[in-house]
Amino acid sequence: MHGAVELLRAGEIVALPTETVYGLAADALNAAAVAKIFQAKERPKFDPLIVHLSHRAMLDRVASIQDPDAELVERLTQAFWPGPLTLLLEKREIIPDLVTAGLETIAVRVSAHPIFAQIVKEFDGPLAAPSANRFGRISPTQAADVLAEIGERIPFIVDGGSTEHGIESTIVRIAAGELEIMRQGPITAEALTKFGKVRHAHDQSKIIAPGQSTSHYAPRTKLVVVDDIRSFAPAPGKRVGALFFRETPVSAASRYKFAATRELSARGDFREAAANLFRFMRELDDAGVDLIVAQLVPEEGIGCAINDRLRRAAAKFP
Ligand code: TXA
Ligand code: MG
Asked: What is the sign, positive or negative, of the torsion defined by CA atoms of 34, 39, 44, 47?
């Protein structure tokens, strides 16, 4: 861990576990260090990064919070920080334009992962850290995934085991007392409604969220989503991998149709399903199948975030 802090201080990039997915971190105030993130990820410069803080008190150094929203920000940070909630706020000058892709806003969060928390605290400054995958690919949920994605491009990976949530943080834009969900995640819309009016960002291509491109989180193998996997019949001679929430007696009977199967949560638990999602997508991607068929999960709670990731993965293969 100490090695990680030294590397960060020296302007290097380091992969670190967070409670959501692994991040690729650099000193957010050092544009040259941040540039290395874009290079390692092959990420286009128009796609801004999330900035991670050690604690709430650091927020005012990087963001300026205007009065009608100050109370809402206070309540949200008290309720969800440290944790998987990213807030879009007005950026301060101190943050290099490269971090925010020239936008007036900055995306910020405080990670609850003990290793990340320790490192950002010792570093004592904001860390820019997007997910540690190549652009457009599946986010890494274990150190081995980071190694496979960008291992040869970075000097250090801190192994913190499998991540708890398995999907990226919920991103919320705060404007005029309302909450706009820019990216669904572990903190659900239901959980946010207690704090104000919640809207969903629909046109995901508009400038306020340049990185929310429709096609994202994608395996190399073609992936399609279906409502009911039981009625799916693989084409003759095709090896198909199946990804589904939980097995029903009928889906058990149709298992023989598939070359590989992954069940997200046998007990039907959304949190467990989210934690398994990206690892299973990677495993099916590596299983040498011609096609991955994913059955959408019930559209409720964290299931919405899971379906969002599945639909984006499928969007790469129109
Ligand atoms: O859970 C997470 O949020 C993980 C861990 C590592 O913290 N990070 C993560 O970062 O998912 P990344 O860069 O893979 O996704 C951040 C998303 C991108 O789609 C980006 O476009 C968007 O947040 N974003 C960042 N700053 C933004 C801004 N100022 N305005 C709009 N969207 C922004
Ligand atoms: Mg990402």
From this structure: negative
